[in-house]
Design the sequence.
């Protein structure tokens, strides 16, 4: 699971700096950087705030961060087939329309 990278990619896609997102979430830029680099694992309440500020549901952030290793071995083939399409759809659906 790579939730930090998903947060970083989503933040950048929405045109926000680390400092802007951190301020809106009530956390430091340093802490957000650590989250994005997967060196700190935030608690659920912090993830909820981040997802709200990014305007993307928390379950979607979790799904987008899934890797093949996170899926049961007997379901990996199906995951590999549907994952690219589902992630593409999600990215299109939640992308800011400017």
Sequence:
């Amino acid at each position: 699971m790579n939730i930090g990278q998903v947060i970083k990619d989503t933040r950048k896609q929405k045109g926000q700096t680390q400092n802007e997102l951190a301020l809106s979430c009530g956390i430091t830029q340093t802490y957000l950087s650590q989250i994005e680099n997967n060196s700190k694992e935030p608690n659920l309440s912090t993830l909820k705030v981040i997802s709200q500020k990014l305007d993307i549901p928390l379950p979607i952030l979790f799904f987008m961060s899934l890797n093949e290793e996170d899926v049961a071995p007997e379901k990996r083939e199906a995951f590999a087939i549907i994952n690219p399409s589902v992630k593409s759809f999600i990215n299109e659906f939640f992308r800011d329309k400017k």
Notes: Residues 3-94 form a domain with the 434 Repressor (Amino-terminal Domain) fold (CATH 1.10.260.40). The mean pLDDT is 92. Residues 18 and 33 are 7 Å apart (CA to CA).
